[in-house]
């Protein structure tokens, strides 16, 4: 099919990429990519981490220049040299990590980089009116005078979208936009995206969450290993097919597991109250029990005290009151070495945010594979660190958990999210703990790795370990847990059987509306 | 997108400092030209002054010894994510620890005095650094602020102690009495006459030992592992159950102790008495040394040597060039500190672009790895 | 412009010569921490050296040290360059010079403001107490408020000696007078802190003093500035500072460091060693009268001060020297 590239056709696609190639040294990050994004559609791009999605979008947004190939915007060939140029062509981007000034107001952030001349007041005045119009048109309500750090993440994302629209973006690229959002916020975002589509804007959505693709996109392109595998109409495909295209083989989306055989109580939490850093009670008088050989899942909207509960049980946060028992013995994990006390007591912890907490990303993989256990004699006598032993240990762990690439000397930041998570999991499971606390085990992890991680957690359960799981992915909670506790506003508001409870029932409990008899209350 | 690791390691360690250094010398050359001297001659004077004679070399090494100690002090704290600006004050207070031991025992034996004075200096310097460490760990008082403040407190307190207790009656100079020769750190010229009259002394052996010890401590001990974990990600060290409070206090104590070794070189090795403001900025030079040396012992040794050259060569320049006075020498030294320390990232973006253009860059490697990582 | 740069660069070819060449028997001078141009002690030495240079056409080496550690290095460097005699400034050489004097018996050293008893060292000290006595007397003759200020530099015995002589001079004229004694600090920084010195002087003026004697090196400029600002008088020190603010500097307690340096340079390598005390009789200390301050002084005042001077020289009046017993009996 030949498209005229010099003059605009009758109805050219918003974006057309032809034969885009990009090399980074020996790596062929984008191979002969062809892509057509029709105007007024939401176009999903899926692929595992490292598949080349971000590189492709960076080329489109002017961060990189392609080695070869053409970019057509509205039917015209363009050489996009930088992001300012891209903006001029009506391409806006909302990054995964927001580019906002935290202590500025919404309005100030919107005009940032477009302040006009010396005096700022006219720009602000103009922006206020424009913002109002945009907000009404796209149902993007944000208080223009609110300070960024005081509004929710979802609101911040709206500001990013408004910023792009204010600069005249017609084509909006969103990079993993729901990674930081609660389910409600994600739903809000999708409403906004639909409105944008209705108003004729074009949206490119980069994600690896198939549910989102199915929910919002019109078309979807799948990338794998730098190549464009296929572009499909969303209506004509299924999550299973997409997953297979992404990974290159069949993927089990549903976890297979036997019914649990719970043993004696291993982890008992009694009347636990925990404050956050601002001394506000986030966990309120919670009691729960996890028995050997069972997975107890805690469902809830993020920010209802799950993080504080996990951190307290793992020794990272002192409780205000209440007690924690391990295998029947009361333990104290107070003090800023509580993490070590917990490990000594046989409690392993896969933290919610591996990069922020569970790993040192600038360390080599082997260093992270002993983090938290470096003091043991296993890794050196007395004060000395036995680097050989640690590397051998890491090598073994990496092999067992199929971490790729299997190189213990590689910097951790250079592993993909899924492989980073495998390093954490390999470390925490490797010390044969009695109790495992797992937070968000598959956040930001690609599909192939999710499957593997889920299998490992089930295997731990089958080996008789007690597992406490926290996740904001309801699907994950439902498929892994043997029992579900629902947390709302620092309390456990209900308990459910994953086999019986519907998503709707759980959703109501998570919203604090309906409650069945939980362990407390 | 904006990673920091997008140029090869060798370029980061060798090329970048070298470019900064060259730029610093070029601009220094302009300064020398402006005051009517020949820059080539100035460079020659610096080089010749630093290496041209046994005396010069000895002085260079003597200054470098100071900077190794203060550089290591700043570096160990940096590995723990702490910016210790207080090496100056810590070395100063350490001088008190050294002189008290030496004054008390300078009638005994050098084998008794020197080790105990080293301990005394380490204890005083370590204590002086541990207090800001404790304040940071327990009270959240920012260590940059507190260590700066502690420099001032050290200065005032030391002057008080010198004036009130250490200064011999009727003396005009603000200094303690001269130590008996038993308490002197043996100078190398005793065994190696080639060093002429220079004050380079056995402290340089201590410096070399500490460079090796630093490497072992940071990269081959469990404490070092914990230290680096906290430095890179304090939340991860808390997660791992390493006590951040303990780590901070101990690291700062070690840092102050290292800075305190500078007092041994100065008090026992050169002055043989405690002199007002004997540190004379070496603590601050330590910051530049650690920055330039990328907190690695080899880098610190080289950077310390460079600053030793600047100090010794600088005074040589002052001798041989009539228009060069002490202010001009300070300007040259400050330019090197500015470009290698404060503005060390100046060439980074252009180097990144350069290496990105060449291909085999860190960024590309990173992508190669992640791509490889998800291939299945 | 370009040409001159090129010619300078090409001069580099000859630089090897300059490095190794030794200047035979040129005198040398090492300034103390205040620096060459401190408008006081060190600058006086510089002026003396320059005067010698102008008179004889000879050359001399000089060096400004930046920290105490450089003293020994600088002195040795001077010796190795063949400088002889070598003049060093200030009392801070008390511990370095004796050692080096022993090591280099063939070189003559001159130390100003300190006594080093070595066969090849000339120690030059000044009777600052007698000179200070005279300016104190002059202050008391000029101002009738009965209140007088003194701002010293670093709080050390040498400066107490200035104070003590000054106070004795004041009381010789007005027995019931009050003298406000202040020091800018306890470290060498005290020599370079005109701000503090100015504040101290202002405080003295506010308390009723009309004359403040600044024995504070470079800090003294702050006192003179304060005198000008408050329309009062300052007394300068070391060099003749009358010209700095004509009409506001009553006089200067001259300590002829310049003369000491010039004399040492003139005497050359064969200079006589041993202790040299420069007092009123030798014109080593004194008070300055020139066009800048002549109008401030009456003939009677000058006559009175000259009378004191004669009596001190004749031994009829004994001015107590603080440094002999660390006491100041008033």
From TrEMBL, chain A:
It is a peripheral membrane protein. The keyword Signal does not apply. GO terms for cellular component: plasma membrane. SUPFAM superfamilies: P-loop containing nucleoside triphosphate hydrolases. GO terms for molecular function: ATP binding; ATP hydrolysis activity. Its main location: membrane. Keywords: ATP-binding, Cell membrane, Membrane, Nucleotide-binding, Repeat, Sugar transport, Translocase, Transport. Residues 15-250, 267-514 form the ABC transporter domain. Transmembrane segments: none annotated. It is found in: Cell membrane. The keyword Protease does not apply. It comes from the Bacteria. Pfam families: ABC_tran (PF00005). Belongs to the ABC transporter superfamily. PANTHER family: CARBOHYDRATE TRANSPORT ATP-BINDING PROTEIN MG119-RELATED (PTHR43790), GUANOSINE IMPORT ATP-BINDING PROTEIN NUPO (PTHR43790:SF4). This is Simple sugar transport system ATP-binding protein. It comes from Devosia enhydra. The lineage of its organism: Bacteria, Pseudomonadati, Pseudomonadota, Alphaproteobacteria, Hyphomicrobiales.
TrEMBL record, chain B:
It is a multi-pass membrane protein. One of its GO terms (molecular function) is transmembrane transporter activity. InterPro entries: ABC_transp_permease. Keywords: Cell membrane, Membrane, Sugar transport, Transmembrane, Transmembrane helix, Transport. It holds the Pfam family BPD_transp_2. The chain crosses the membrane at residues 12-35, 61-82, 111-131, 143-162, 195-218, 247-268, 274-291, 298-315, 327-347. It comes from the Bacteria. It is found in: Cell membrane. GO terms for cellular component: plasma membrane. Coiled coil: none annotated. This is Simple sugar transport system permease protein.
From TrEMBL, chain C:
Pfam families: Bmp. It is found in: Cell membrane. Residues 1-25 form the signal peptide. Residues 37-320 form the ABC transporter substrate-binding protein PnrA-like domain. GO terms for cellular component: plasma membrane. It is a lipid-anchor. Keywords: Cell membrane, Lipoprotein, Membrane, Signal. Transmembrane segments: none annotated. Belongs to the BMP lipoprotein family. PANTHER family: ABC TRANSPORTER GUANOSINE-BINDING PROTEIN NUPN, TRANSCRIPTIONAL ACTIVATOR PROTEIN MED. This is Nucleoside-binding protein. It comes from Devosia enhydra.
């Amino acid at each position: 099919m030949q498209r005229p590239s010099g003059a605009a056709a009758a109805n050219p696609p918003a974006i057309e990429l032809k034969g885009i190639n990009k090399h980074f040294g020996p790596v062929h990050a984008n191979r002969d990519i062809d892509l057509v994004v029709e105007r007024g559609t939401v176009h999903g791009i899926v692929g595992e981490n490292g598949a080349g999605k971000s590189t492709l979008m960076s080329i489109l947004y002017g961060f990189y220049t392609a080695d070869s190939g053409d970019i057509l915007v509205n039917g015209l060939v363009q050489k996009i040299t930088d992001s300012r140029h891209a903006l001029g062509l009506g391409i806006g981007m909302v990054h995964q990590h927001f580019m906002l000034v935290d202590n500025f107001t919404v309005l100030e952030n919107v005009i940032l980089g477009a302040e006009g001349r010396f005096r700022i007041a006219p720009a602000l005045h103009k922006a206020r009116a424009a913002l109002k119009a945009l907000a009404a048109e796209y149902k993007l309500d944000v208080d223009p005078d609110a300070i960024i750090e005081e509004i929710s993440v979802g609101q911040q994302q709206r500001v990013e979208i408004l910023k792009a629209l204010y600069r005249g973006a017609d084509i909006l690229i969103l990079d993993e936009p729901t990674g930081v959002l609660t389910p409600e916020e994600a739903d809000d975002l999708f409403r906004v995206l639909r409105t944008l589509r209705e108003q004729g804007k074009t949206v490119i959505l980069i994600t690896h969450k198939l549910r989102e693709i199915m929910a919002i996109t019109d078309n979807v392109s799948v990338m794998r290993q730098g190549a464009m595998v296929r572009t499909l109409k969303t209506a004509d495909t299924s999550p299973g097919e997409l997953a297979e295209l992404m990974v290159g083989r069949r993927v089990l989306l549903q976890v297979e597991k036997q019914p649990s055989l719970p043993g004696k109580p291993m982890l008992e939490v009694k009347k636990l109250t925990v404050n956050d850093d601002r001394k506000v009670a986030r966990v309120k008088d919670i009691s729960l029990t996890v028995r050997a050989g069972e997975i107890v899942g805690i469902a809830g909207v993020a920010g209802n005290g799950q993080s504080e509960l996990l951190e307290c049980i793992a020794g990272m946060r002192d409780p205000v009151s209440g007690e924690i028992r391990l295998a029947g013995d009361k333990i104290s994990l107070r003090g800023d070495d509580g993490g070590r006390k917990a490990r000594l007591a046989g409690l392993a912890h896969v933290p919610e945010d591996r990069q922020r907490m569970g790993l040192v990303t600038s360390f080599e993989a082997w260093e992270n594979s002993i983090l938290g256990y470096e003091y043991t004699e296993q890794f050196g006598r007395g004060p000395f660190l036995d680097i050989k032993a640690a590397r051998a240990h890491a090598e073994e762990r990496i092999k067992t958990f199929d971490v790729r690439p299997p190189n213990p000397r590689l910097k951790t930041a250079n592993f993909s999210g899924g492989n980073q998570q495998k390093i954490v999991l390999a470390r925490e499971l490797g010390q044969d703990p009695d109790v495992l606390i797992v937070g968000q085990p598959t956040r930001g992890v690609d599909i192939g790795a999710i499957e593997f991680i889920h299998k490992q957690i089930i295997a731990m359960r089958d080996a008789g370990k007690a597992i406490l799981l926290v996740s904001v992915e309801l699907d994950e909670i439902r498929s892994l847990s043997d029992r579900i506790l629902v947390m709302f506003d620092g309390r456990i508001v209900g308990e459910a059987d994953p086999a019986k409870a519907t998503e709707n029932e759980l959703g109501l409990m998570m919203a604090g509306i309906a409650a069945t008899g939980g362990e407390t209350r | 997108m904006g990673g920091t690791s997008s140029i090869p390691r060798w370029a980061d360690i060798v090329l970048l400092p070298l470019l900064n250094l060259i730029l610093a010398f070029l601009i220094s050359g302009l300064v020398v030209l402006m005051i009517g001297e020949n820059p080539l001659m100035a460079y020659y004077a610096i080089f010749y002054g630093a290496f041209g004679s046994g005396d010069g070399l000895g002085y260079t090494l003597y200054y470098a010894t100071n900077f190794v100690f203060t550089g290591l002090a700043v570096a160990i704290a940096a590995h723990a994510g702490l910016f210790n600006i207080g090496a100056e004050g810590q070395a100063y207070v350490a001088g008190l620890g050294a002189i008290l031991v030496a004054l008390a025992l300078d009638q005994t034996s050098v084998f008794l005095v020197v080790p105990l004075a080293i301990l005394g200096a380490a204890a005083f310097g370590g204590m002086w650094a541990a207090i800001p460490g404790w304040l940071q760990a327990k009270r959240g008082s920012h260590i940059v602020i507190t260590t700066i403040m502690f420099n001032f407190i050290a200065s005032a307190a030391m002057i008080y102690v010198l004036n009130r207790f250490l200064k011999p009656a009727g003396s005009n100079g603000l200094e303690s009495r001269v130590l008996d020769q038993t308490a002197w750190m043996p100078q190398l010229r005793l065994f190696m006459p080639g060093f002429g009259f220079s004050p380079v002394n056995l402290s340089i052996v201590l410096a070399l030992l500490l460079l090796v010890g630093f490497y072992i401590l940071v990269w081959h001990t469990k404490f070092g592992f914990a230290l680096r974990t906290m430095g890179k990600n304090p939340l991860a060290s808390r997660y791992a159950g390493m006590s951040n409070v303990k780590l901070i206090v101990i690291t700062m104590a070690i840092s102050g102790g290292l800075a305190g070794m500078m007092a041994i070189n100065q008090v026992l090795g050169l002055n043989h008495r405690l002199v007002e403001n004997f540190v004379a900025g070496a603590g601050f030079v330590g910051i530049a040394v650690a920055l330039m040396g990328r907190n690695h012992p080899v880098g610190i040794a080289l950077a310390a040597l460079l600053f030793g050259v600047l100090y010794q060569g600088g005074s040589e320049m002052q001798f041989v060039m009539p228009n060069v006075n002490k202010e001009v020498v300070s300007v040259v030294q400050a330019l090197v500190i500015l470009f290698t320390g404060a503005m060390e990232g100046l060439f980074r973006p252009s180097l990144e672009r350069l290496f990105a253009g060449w291909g085999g860059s860190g960024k590309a490697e990173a992508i190669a790895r992640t791509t490889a990582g998800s291939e299945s | 412009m370009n040409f001159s740069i090129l010619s300078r660069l090409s001069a580099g070819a000859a630089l090897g010569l300059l490095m190794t060449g030794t200047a035979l028997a040129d005198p040398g001078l090492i300034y103390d921490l205040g620096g060459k141009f401190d408008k006081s002690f060190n600058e006086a030495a510089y002026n003396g050296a320059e005067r010698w240079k102008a008179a004889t056409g000879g050359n001399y080496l000089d060096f400004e040290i930046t920290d105490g550690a450089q003293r020994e290095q600088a002195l040795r460097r001077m010796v190795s360059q063949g400088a002889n005699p070598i003049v060093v400034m200030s009392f801070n050489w008390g511990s370095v010079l004796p050692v080096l004097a022993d090591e280099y018996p063939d070189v003559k050293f001159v130390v100003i403001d300190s006594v080093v008893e070595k066969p090849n060292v000339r120690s030059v000290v000044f009777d600052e107490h007698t000179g200070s006595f005279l300016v104190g007397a002059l202050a008391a003759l000029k101002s009738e408020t009965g209140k007088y200020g003194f701002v010293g530099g670093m709080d050390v015995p040498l400066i107490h000696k200035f104070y003590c002589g000054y106070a004795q001079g004041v009381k010789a004229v007005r027995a019931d007078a009050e003298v406000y004694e202040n020091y800018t600090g306890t470290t060498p920084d005290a020599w370079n802190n005109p701000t503090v010195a100015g504040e101290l002087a202002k405080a003295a003026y506010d308390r009723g003093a009309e004359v403040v004697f600044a024995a504070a090196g470079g800090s003294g400029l702050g006192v003179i500035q304060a005198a000008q600002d408050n329309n009062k008088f300052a007394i300068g020190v070391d060099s003749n500072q009358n010209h700095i603010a004509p009409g506001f500097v009553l006089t200067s307690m001259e300590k002829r460091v310049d003369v000491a340096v010039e004399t040492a340079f003139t005497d050359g390598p064969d200079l006589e060693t041993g202790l040299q005390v420069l007092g009123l009789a030798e014109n080593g200390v004194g008070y300055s009268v020139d066009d800048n301050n002549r109008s401030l002084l009456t003939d009677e005042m000058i006559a009175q001060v000259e009378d004191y001077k004669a009596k001190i020289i004749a031994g009829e009046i004994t001015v107590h020297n603080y440094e002999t017993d660390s006491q100041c009996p008033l």
